Amino acid sequence: MNPQFKKGVFDMCVLALLTKGDSYGYDLADALTTKIQSSDGTVYPILRKLASEGLVSTYLQESQNGPPRKYYHLTELGKERLNNDLAEWKDFREAVDEIISEIVGGIE
Amino acid sequence: MTRQEYLDSLKHELGDLSYNEVNDIVADISEHFDIGAMQNKSDDEIIAGLGSAKELAQDYLNGGSYKDAIKRNRKPNPKSVINKTTQPTEKDYGGARICVVLFNIFVGVPGLLLLAVIEAVYAALFTTLVISFANFVQVIPDFGDFMSAGVCLAITNVLLLIFLFTLFYFAVKYFIRLIVLYARLNKKIWNEGF
């Protein structure tokens, strides 16, 4: 898929996934890449950026088997950002749909 | 490619970030490998999923939050140029650079030289000991009744020499590491100021 498409919305997707509860990198990468064709690696730089912006917080938690995992938690700031992004995304998507609906069915 | 090779390559590509940041990132990706391995995935499968180390590193470096990395990029790629224009004006590094030069002339370089001399003297003394020990071993057969005592003494000496050599090995090893760290610190202050 066009990488330019993904760039803008992956942050929002990761924040959205975290509304379902705290999660760790591997799980988030899995959730994202099963729906959108992308490498698992993309999620880690995003998580790091979100953490540095205070949109998510992190903590280590023991796992039943294996070493402890780094969990990510959506902060209040992150929720605000997500709501903002979702509203913008809705407007954007509607506008794009409107523009391309005229050629629906694709270009011959 | 093995997991370790991948992580090493990632570290290398992240070179412009600070030591702590690189360690943090490597820890995150190691965790990914750990969990993948628990799900019976091979290193190759996990690496194929992650994408190339170079791309991953680029994602980190272009991650927006890495203002430092962008600033430190001597050859900025077109992507980071956009970010660079939004950077606050570059601060004046003159003061920090003069400090680096003066510190090197009066403290840093003489200090390292002194350590090097100490290690050279140690090496020379050690060599002398080895030579005298070799001479001693040659005369053991002439000891006659005191042969067993001579052999015991020789064994004791061998152990002592091994111990002294180990000391020397670590001294040299940490000396080299110290030089590397010191050079890196100089570079950091030179490029970023205090």
Question: Can you walk through the features of this model?
Answer:
The complex is a heterodimer of chains A (108) and B (194). Chain A is α+β, with helices and mostly antiparallel strands. Chain A is built from four helices and three strands; from the N terminus they run αβααββα. Chain A has helices at residues 3-18, 25-35, 43-52, 76-101; strands at 23-24, 56-61, 69-74. Chain A has a three-stranded antiparallel sheet. The radius of gyration of chain A is 16 Å and the shape is globular. In chain A, 25% of the residues are buried. With 194 residues, chain B is mainly α. In chain B, 79% of the residues lie in helices and 0% in strands. Chain B is built from eight helices and no strands. In chain B, α1 (3-13) runs parallel beside α4 and α7 packs antiparallel against α8 (147-192). The longest helix of chain B has 46 residues, at 94-139. Chain B is flat, with a radius of gyration of 27 Å. The model of chain B is unreliable at 64-90 (pLDDT under 50). The chains are: A alpha+beta (108), B mainly alpha (194). Chain A binds chain B through residues 24-26, 29, 33, 39-42, 44-49, 52-53, 65-67, 69-70, and chain B through 24-25, 27-29, 31-32, 34-36, 38, 46, 49-51, 55-56, 59-60, 62-65.
